[in-house]
Each structure stands twice: as C-alpha cells, then as structure tokens.
Amino acid sequence: MNRTTHLLYLHGFRSSPQSAKARQMAAHVAAEHPGVHFWCPQLPPSPREAMALVAGTVAHWPRASSAVVGSSLGGFYASWVAQQLSCPSVMLNPAVDPARDLARYIGEQTSWHDPAERFFFLPEYITELQALDVRGQPPAGPELAIIAKGDEVLDWREMVARYPAAQQEVLEGGDHALSGFEVHLPRVASFMRL
C-alpha cells in the first residue's frame, strides 16, 4: 500500500476552503505530513464545472498515492472522484441524494463564510448532480464514512445505508458541521495512509 502523497479536500454546499474542517485538515497535513500535497479548491456552484475543475487537476496526480476527503455535498463529490482515481475516500456526513435535497435551494444563495458573497443555484444543476451519482457502483477504493446521528441537515440512516462497504464511524449526537472534527483527524489521516 502506497502512502498518500496527494490529498484533495472537497467542501460542501455554500461552503468554502475557509470551513472549520477544511482549515483543520489543512493545518493537520501541514504540521504532521508536510510532504503531502494538499489541495482544497473553491468549488463553483455548478456540479459539472466543479468536477471538471477537480478532474482537470487530479488527472496529473499519481493515482496510486492520491486520496480524497469530502464533507456533505463534498462527500457526494468525493465518491465520484474516488471512482475516477480508484483511490481511498473519506466522507464526512456525506450528501446521499443532493439532486433531491438541493432542489429547494434553486435561486440566489449566500456563502456561509461570507454572506456578502452571493451565487445562483440554477435548475440545471440538479441534472448535473444526477449525472455524478455513483450509487450502485461498487467502491473503487477503500471508504471511511464519519456520520453523526445528530446531523440536523441530512438523515444519518440514509448515509449509513449508502455506504455499506465503508468503514463507518457512527457518532451519537454531533451535528452536520461535525463540530470537534479535530478529534477525528488522526483516524482520517491513518485511514488515508498519510
């Protein structure tokens, strides 16, 4: 098993590389694994454009030593990326059916970390999400899912059912943001062979 040299972090809907988990992951990698190439891009609202941006960059990464972490909608994307790269993936409270769940967000949205930043979530993004859905395909690499029963946005039972082949850490309580994520960093780092 190769050690991971390239790590991709994908943030969730209305989120950014400034999210607490993205910053904690970046800081952990910088402090504990300084040789690892860490990339957490700001994803455009269009799922097709977001995955085109990611695919265009990771195409040049060494497949045998890449890994991906994703939170919420980023977890859904991480499953798609892992299929492309056949790499390990870690999903943090992953969105299972964002095409269904995000339909009610069509229209103008604001960013969590900068409410002055606005974007439009367009109706065609739902079709783009459906095109990226890899449910029903066997995982192309090892999977770890960290799921909080206390998630106020997504149903933890759906997440558990979506990732039957994954190592699962199902937390009593907790929240969608996985507050206190830093306690999970050693497990995530070890799973990804950092």
Describe the structure.
33% of the residues lie in helices and 19% in strands. The chain has seven helices and eight strands, in the order βαβαβαβαββαβαβα. It has helices spanning 20-32, 47-58, 73-85, 98-101, 124-131, 156-162, 185-191, and strands at 6-10, 37-39, 66-71, 89-92, 107-110, 118-121, 143-148, 167-171. The radius of gyration is 15 Å and the shape is globular.
The mean pLDDT is 95
Order of neighbouring strands in the sheet with most strands: 2-1-3-4-7-8
Spans of 5+ residues with little confidence (pLDDT < 50)? Answer: none
Shape: globular
Structural class by SSE content: alpha/beta
- Fraction in beta strands: 15-25%
Order of helical and strand elements: EHEHEHEHEEHEHEH
Q: How many DSSP E strands? A: 8
Regarding quaternary structure, what we see is single chain
Number of helices: 7
Terminal Cα separation, in Å? 11 Å
Summarize the biggest pleated sheet. Answer: 6 strands, parallel
Descriptive labels:
two-stranded antiparallel ribbon, six-stranded parallel sheet, 7 helices, 194 residues, single chain
Summary, kept brief:
The chain contains 7 helices and 8 strands; from the N terminus they run βαβαβαβαββαβαβα. It has 194 residues and is α/β, with parallel strands linked by helices.
Write the layout of secondary structure elements.
Layout: E1 6-10, H1 20-32, E2 37-39, H2 47-58, E3 66-71, H3 73-85, E4 89-92, H4 98-101, E5 107-110, E6 118-121, H5 124-131, E7 143-148, H6 156-162, E8 167-171, H7 185-191
Parallel strand pairs: 1-2, 1-3, 3-4, 4-7, 7-8
Antiparallel strand pairs: 5-6
Helix pairs in contact: 2-3
